[in-house]
User: Fold these one by one.
Assistant:
Number 1:
Amino acid sequence: METSQAIERPEVALRGRDVLGIGDLDAREMRAVLALAAQLKERGRAGDHPPLLEGKVLALLFEKPSLRTHATFETGMFHLGGHALYLDDRSAGLGRRESYADIARNLERWVQGIAVRTFAHANVEALAAHARVPVINALSDWEHPCQALAALFTLQERWERLEGLRIAWVGDGNNVLRSLLLGAVRLGVSVAIATPPGYELDAATLEEAGRRAAPGTVIDVIDDPVRAVRDADLVYTDVWASMGQEGEVERRRPVFARFQVNAALLARAPRHAVVSHCLPAHRGEEITDEVLDGPRSVAFDEAENRLHVQKSLLALAL
Ligand code: CP
Ligand code: NVA
């Protein structure tokens, strides 16, 4: 349909840039992505999809399963007037049939951007090193930057600001936490992290987060979920065992048992606090049905917002 008015394009130089981790975006650039996402969301709800990427193609290289990331990148490219080309491990033999470097050398001849979901973060880096088109990390074992953008967008939508808010992370010290922490603190959101012993975030990431944190932003690392949620505006959790760690499920279950986000834990958070999860959820493990389906859950709002923040990022980078 005809667009009613021009999109206000934020003045940031993201064209051609890779987003391998959330740290590839500075605070101004993250705010720009969120601002354009808000416009695209509002317009999209009215059925108005500005064709900002007409004729452009995004390759989706996926070694791991996905619902949200696959659906939102494909839908997003369609809305923007472009096309998404989905290549999974079975069809393209990612990294096995040929190296990620050679895949990059081929893809850059045909497409204007690459989103990749892989195990080893080194594969994301290899693509970026050998492709002259932007590479976006659609989840690696190390980071999930698009999820962090969606979480921050959802938080901002809820409270109409980010600075001064507090996130409590309850669960595994994983890829989603790493991106969320590194993105949040840069925008002035404090983070309290409760992870079980042996499953903490690595020291280098915590140190990097400390260096990046906006003035006044606090990072607390504790192993007590109750203390973590005490002052939270958002309580966040994720699966106890990520993709690729399926063999550790039984070993992890007893260690993580007291890190479940349930009604009892939520009762210890401020009354206004909301809850999210990047999804898919293992209901009855890291989060209960009652909480995930309850009035304080914004997990499905965040899933919707994956679409809007990724469209924004693509429109700025491709
Ligand atoms: N949250 C998320 O990335 O979901 P998928 O694994 O379904 O893409
Ligand atoms: N930490 C999870 C996130 C899934 C979206 C994983 O990597 O499997």
Number 2:
Amino acid sequence: MNAPEVSVIVPVYNEEEGLQALYDRLYPALDALGTSYEIVFINDGSRDRSAAILRQQWERRPDVTRVILLAANAGQHMAIMAGFEKCRGQIVVTLDADLQNPPEEIGALVAKMREGYDCVGSIRKDRHDSAFRRYASKAMNRIRERITHVKMTDQGCMLRAYSRSVIDAINSCEEVNTFIPALAYTLAQNPTEIEVAHEERHAGESKYSIYSLIRLNFDLMTNFSIVPLQAFSMTGIIIALLSAFFVIFLLARRLIVGPEAEGLFTLFGIAFFLIGVTLFGVGMLGEYVGRIYQQVRHRPRYIVGAVLEKKE
Ligand code: UDP
Ligand code: MG
């Protein structure tokens, strides 16, 4: 298998019900491109039969299929990183396994890449997700626009294409818990975006609980911006100034008017508010310290159990 033009990276986590339907559309869509390609599936420590189904497919199409079996669940973005390190294409496309991103759109991404862009993002035309997901993701998009330098219209869509140079740059990054589209954007020199169709999840259910969605957004915000940290120190300064004035006011009042016992509860209110702010600040610090901790440990991002590929 010589280096193909296009590599498609598909992370798979508990997708046994949907994989056959994915094969049925992905392979014909890539065959239709009329160029050399490889598909790199990463089994992200699935607990269902996904690994076995991927192995079958590898036996059926070993010429264009490679399978990385991770030993444990590392998360979607880390699984994609495993694929990036293994893939050899000049144009690298990421795709979800659940058919929410139609594989037929890969052709459009590849065509755009051939025009000379080094990163082609995508905007979902009409999104088929729950209303909660749509609104939450819009809000997070807006916050990200404000506090990071990453300009993406639709951060959530994973159907994207990257050039070999961007992939090499990503591979040289040692950080863990990253958010690939944003990382690629910061490394790309000539990015662009196109509109792509979006569909209902073909089978199974979303692998993201509210908890993991919140974690993912923390990855995005704190990896690409220190504004949350700065925002806290700024609020801290303002609140400290205001309370200093307040203390002076209370002191003056006590000297002029005399002590007041009724004001006790106001003070309680203020104290609780400050405790809240402090706790939030400590939490925010914890976010960054946690990241430093993860980074200094230099743990591997994932552990490969096996790689299924043809001998060269
Ligand atoms: N995924 C993964 N590891 C995980 C969670 C998800 O490899 O820990 C894969 C999953 O199999 C799918 C893709 O990432 O191919 C996107 O997941 P999902 O469709 O559940 O996310 P959503 O569309 O709800 O954002
Ligand atoms: Mg999905």
